[in-house]
């Protein structure tokens, strides 16, 4: 019985150590480049994503949340995903300024899928919120449905889309 108790304690300690190794989100800076486009992420409107990979000291950045989800849903990765963070658009100043430090775990986020929102790269955007009521309100105003990350079908982010021209900010 003591051996079983010792093994349980050892397993709990090991789990706690793994949980503490999950990287925290980092503030987006002007140096952050999009993983797919290699463009400055901060120069694009709408929510962003950052994914922390095993063996890499810095996250990879996504100019659109849609692209980050596509990366997660795709099987073509060279490293394990340790953490995936997205901007909480309920805490964002506005669409043009999604924030640099309002990151939430993508697995805990509520995404509005299929709305009229267009991300910084011109593709339809999946808009993340920490608060399910804020996500529902956005969906009522802009269309779409509220889903969790696990409910998003791969074809919703991996299928080809018509990219629209995103006008340059006027100010």
Topology:
Blueprint: H1 2-20, E1 49-53, E2 60-62, H2 65-73, E3 81-87, E4 103-105, E5 110-113, E6 127-129, H3 132-142, E7 145-147, H4 155-158
Antiparallel strand pairs: 1-2, 1-3, 3-4, 5-6, 5-7
Number of strands: 7
Distance separating the two termini? 70 Å
Q: How much β-strand is present in the residues?
A: 15-25%
Distinct helical segment count: 4
Counting copies of identical and different chains, the oligomeric state is: single chain
The domain count comes to 1
Spans of at least 5 consecutive residues with low confidence: 1-18
Level-2 CATH architecture: 2-Layer Sandwich
Protein described:
By secondary structure, this protein is α+β, with helices and mostly antiparallel strands. The chain has a single domain (2-158), classed as Alpha-Beta Plaits (2-Layer Sandwich). It has four helices and seven strands. The chain has helices spanning 2-20, 65-73, 132-142, 155-158, and strands at 49-53, 60-62, 81-87, 103-105, 110-113, 127-129, 145-147. A four-stranded antiparallel β-sheet has the order 2-1-3-4. A hairpin with a 6-residue loop joins strand 1 (49-53) and strand 2 (60-62). The longest helix is centred in the first third of the chain and has 19 residues, at 2-20.
